[in-house]
Amino acid sequence: GGGGGGRGSTPHAPRGRAAGGRGGGGGLRQPGDKTDFKKAPPGACLVGPESDIKKSAGYVCTMLRAGKPPPVMGIGPACVNQATKLLALAHSYLEEEQLDLYAQVDFPEYAESSSSAMVKLHVFQKAKRTNLAEVSEQIFVSATSEPDKVSGYIANCVREGPAKARLCITVAGPQPVLRALKAVFLARHHLAEDKLDLSIIPEFGKSDEGVSLVNIFVLSHAPGARL
After folding, report:
1. What is the CATH number of domain 45-221?
2. How many CB atoms lie within 10 A of CB 219?
3. What ranges does the record give for the region Disordered, renumbered to this chain (predicted)?
């Protein structure tokens, strides 16, 4: 689960077929319908099309303060976008208490289908807030960006950059958010043999033209490390 345990999440292997898959047929009725979250642990924050992300962000904050931050899950670009914004909201809500969170990105059904759009964000409490503005690399992901290529770039930046490098992926809109998260997920696999892992902290931003953006800060660290 995505509780506040000492170890980080282990990303599901992107290759090979996972046992106990969903199988064919029985298509999704509506992306994010709670009956589709077959792999959701108890207490998970499930983000659907009608979810109130302000209330959901409050729930995540409450559980985090209690030492049991829930995983946040969404299916499909729109719901994954909302799930990411939910964490950005929770990140802002926690600021006045000098608390913070970070999340590790997983696509539980990727082994069954590389086009899977089910995201599971394992949430953890961060030891202290840090200034996220100092980044070693700025990456822009669009609706046409290819997650495979972006993931390779992320992995190379982390390998070649300063220790504990921090990247910033800037996105606007559901498809870019989904593609950015998939790129981070794949980059976690690329970096596993280097004994490195990645976590994210989403934060709201604005472009010079006033367009609402999400900045997904990517932090590199040793596998299982608490940030």
Report:
1. 3.30.110.20
2. 20
3. 1-43
